[in-house]
Design goal:
Order of helices and strands of chain B: EEEHEEHEHHHHEHEHEEHHHHEEH
Number of domains of chain A: 2
Helix content of chain A: 25-40%
Distance between the termini of chain A: 43 Å
Distance between the termini of chain B: 28 Å
CATH class of the largest domain in chain A: Alpha Beta
Largest sheet of chain B: 8 strands, mixed
Strand order of the largest sheet of chain B: 6-7-8-3-9-10-12-11
Order of helices and strands of chain A: EEEHEEHEHHHHHEHEHEEHHEEHH
CATH topology of chain B: Rossmann fold
CATH superfamily of the largest domain in chain A: P-loop containing nucleotide triphosphate hydrolases
Number of domains of chain B: 1
Number of strands of chain A: 12
CATH architecture of the largest domain in chain A: 3-Layer(aba) Sandwich
Oligomer: heterodimer
Shape of chain A: globular
Number of helices of chain B: 13
Strand order of the largest sheet of chain A: 6-7-8-3-9-10-12-11
Number of strands of chain B: 12
Structural class of chain A: alpha/beta
Structural class of chain B: alpha/beta
Shape of chain B: globular
């Protein structure tokens, strides 16, 4: 989708299928996307939209019943979709592309000292000695904001708070200096005040180390904070893609409009909150036309018949909706979306509801 | 604490304390001297981080946690501590709870029909089988599900639908009071609004009273009439919803408000973080209590802090004008 840029990871026509008992579920339906080096890309979508599955294909972590059935994933001149052996994956996973998961308690070993969990990664991937690794681990702990790291090195995960544990998980992920860091809902299990700190930490570290960040989240507030580029996913496809400003201030897909309008921050007291009606389609069945059409207020006849292509809005902004076809009637986005920035400015101005005090 | 004298108090929590201990030495106070009232027909929100004690308060009200001090009065009747069998049943029937994770709170081996009628069975709230069926159908219909869903199992539903089942099984008991413990946290953004709207519909139609537990102030602003902010087992601020958002006085409330992520890149990227540091603020003095600083607006403070807070209030009112 972008030319002449430094592309670190390039996905072409990716399709992922899962065998569930005797049925086949198509979780990813033909995604093509380039990831630009050093950028923060946020992938937004609801659960079941395929956002986690999509990024799991980059590290060979699909569940056993899933497989990349079509497409290519190019990274450092190698097609990751072709990798079969786990030993080959080990050269990529953790080392070049690392992941931070949602729940820090389940990604740490509860009976192993915090510090050792970091240094073991350094020993394994960088071949350092035990003493060197320990020194590096302590530095890393300080880097992610753990006070008195040399004292806390010997503690166990249960002695850490949720936010501190997530900092450790980030330290482990970054211990090998990966080129890409995938953050899969890294703050969903954390409290709002802690969430803001973790987001900031990842951002600062990405600037310092220059890694590319892929952020998976359903929280548009988080997206607004971290992202350079946003990809909106629905039913196994990317349906809109653009710079963060383009997605928030000039979105074109009715699903993106729906997501933005249903934010409680925009709700007016005493009025119904905007809700996207219905539920996402079943991916067991073949989807005809635009997957969002049955839930859309803007669906046209063609949406039920033919899948829309990507229409170009700007050089960096694309949306997969027939509304952008020149033959389509001109529609305006809902008022809440059109006035998003003005409304947010009022809310956050001095004296406003979320304003400075 | 009642400001509005004509309002009927439905739930009155006085000096509530809940402790957990694993031995005589290690006693942890999860809830410290909680005082609040919930009026009939209102939505009262309890907001705080995980571990702040908000769920513990809810569990104490429905008698799942023992209380170590204080009183909980429901319609003027004490409902904590030792109760007769009939009184326990009365509490169980009239106070219902909607849980956070609908997948975990429904029996996965029972049909939806059974899940929803469980309360009816326990309390024999139906005259015959036809009456029970009718009640279940009506409950399903009221949450937007179909009678044909009755024979299905919870795993066959989406998260949003399961939460509707959770609401239906609470509603069928025709309770006066519902405690909703983070009812939308496990749901997707597009589904959350559906569930919130549904809960609002019931409030209007049936004059229900809600206690709504959340960690996210942005959800609560839209939904609640009054909000209590809880930190480390201590309620630090109580105020009507609009008042709290316009005049957040306690530093912890302010840091919570400030941490709400705004879906606007320009604003969000310019935001500076001001995390709450209890020791530095030194504003939660253990000797303090909840005191009214403006009509209906309560702050946890020690007596010597009153002046400081009053100055803050004056300052804020100036800005608003």
């Amino acid at each position: 989708m972008s030319e002449q840029k430094n592309i670190i990871l390039s996905v072409k026509d990716l399709e992922v299928k899962f065998k569930v008992r005797d049925r086949v579920l198509t979780a990813i339906r033909n995604i093509s996307m380039d990831f630009e080096e050093g950028k923060v890309v946020a992938i937004v979508g609801e659960s079941g939209s395929g956002k986690s599955v999509f990024t799991k294909t980059f590290t060979g972590m699909l569940e056993i019943n899933g497989e990349v059935s079509k497409g290519e994933i190019w990274f450092e001149g190698q097609d990751l979709a072709k990798i079969k052996k786990d030993s080959d994956w080990e050269k990529i996973r953790g080392k070049k592309i690392a992941t931070v998961f949602q729940d820090p308690m389940t990604s740490l070993n509860p009976v192993k000292k915090i510090g050792d969990q970091i240094s073991e990664v350094i020993i394994k991937h960088q071949g350092k000695s035990k003493a060197e690794a320990k020194k590096m681990a302590i530095e890393m702990m300080a880097k992610v904001g753990i006070k008195d790291p040399d004292l806390r090195y010997d503690e166990y995960p249960f002695m850490y708070s949720g936010g501190m544990r997530q900092r450790i998980v980030i330290a482990i992920a970054l211990a090998c200096r990966p080129r890409i860091l995938i953050c899969d809902e890294p703050t969903t299990a954390l409290d709002v005040t802690i969430q803001a700190q973790i987001i900031r930490l990842i951002k600062d570290l990405s600037e310092e180390y220059g890694f590319t960040t892929i952020y998976i989240t359903h929280d548009l507030g988080v997206v607004a904070n971290v992202a350079d580029v946003v990809a909106v996913m629905y039913a196994g496809q990317i349906i809109e893609y653009g710079k963060v400003d383009e997605i928030f201030y000039d979105s074109r897909h009715p699903y993106t409009w729906g997501l933005l309008s249903s934010l409680p921050q925009l709700g007016e007291k005493g009025e119904d909150l905007f809700a996207i009606r219905g539920t996402p389609p079943s991916l067991f069945e073949e989807i005809k036309g635009d997957a969002f059409a049955p839930r859309s207020n803007y669906a046209m006849k063609i949406d039920y018949e033919e899948e829309p292509p990507f229409f170009k809005v700007t050089d960096t902004h694309y949306a997969k909706t027939w509304l952008l076809d020149p033959r389509a009637p001109k529609v305006e986005p809902p008022a809440a979306v059109k006035e998003l920035h003005e409304r947010m400015l009022t809310l956050t101005s001095k004296g406003g509801i979320y304003g400075e005090r | 604490m009642s400001v509005n004298k004509e309002k009927e108090v439905l739930l009155d929590v006085k000096h509530l304390e809940v402790t957990f201990s694993n031995s005589k030495k290690h006693v942890f106070k999860a809830v410290k001297d909680a005082n609040f009232q919930i009026f009939k027909g209102e939505t009262f929100a309890l907001v705080g981080e995980s571990g702040s004690g908000k769920t513990t308060i809810a569990r104490a009200i429905i008698r799942l946690n023992d209380t170590s001090d204080g009183e909980i009065l429901f319609r003027g009747k004490k409902i904590n501590g030792k109760l007769s069998k009939e009184d326990k049943k009365w509490v169980q029937r009239n106070i219902q709870m909607i849980f956070q994770d609908p997948a975990a709170s429904l029996n996965e081996r029972a049909t939806i029909d059974y899940c929803i009628s469980e309360g009816l069975y326990n309390f024999h709230l139906y005259t015959d089988e036809a009456d029970r069926q009718k009640k279940v159908d009506m409950a399903l219909d009221s949450v937007g599900l179909l009678p044909e869903h009755k024979s299905r199992y919870p795993h066959e539903f989406s998260g949003g639908q399961r939460q509707r089942v959770g609401i239906a099984r609470a509603m069928i008991m025709e309770p006066e009071f519902i405690i909703a413990d983070e009812p939308i946290s496990a749901l997707d953004v597009s589904i959350r609004a559906q569930v919130l709207n549904l809960m609002n519909k019931f409030k209007e139609e049936r004059g229900l009273t809600y206690m709504f537990i959340a960690h996210d102030l942005s959800v609560v602003r839209y939904f609640a009439d009054r909000i209590a902010v809880i930190h480390n087992g201590r309620i630090v601020e109580v105020a009507p919803s609009n008042e709290l958002f316009h005049f957040p006085i306690h530093p912890y409330t302010r840091s919570l408000l400030q941490a709400v992520p705004m879906p606007d890149p320009e604003i969000e990227k310019a935001k500076e973080l001001k995390p709450y540091d209890q020791e530095k603020e030194n504003l939660v003095d253990e000797t303090g209590s909840l005191q009214e600083i403006k009509p209906g607006h309560f702050i946890f403070m020690a007596e010597n802090e009153r002046e400081e807070y009053e100055a803050i209030v004056k300052e804020m009112e100036k800005v608003k004008e």
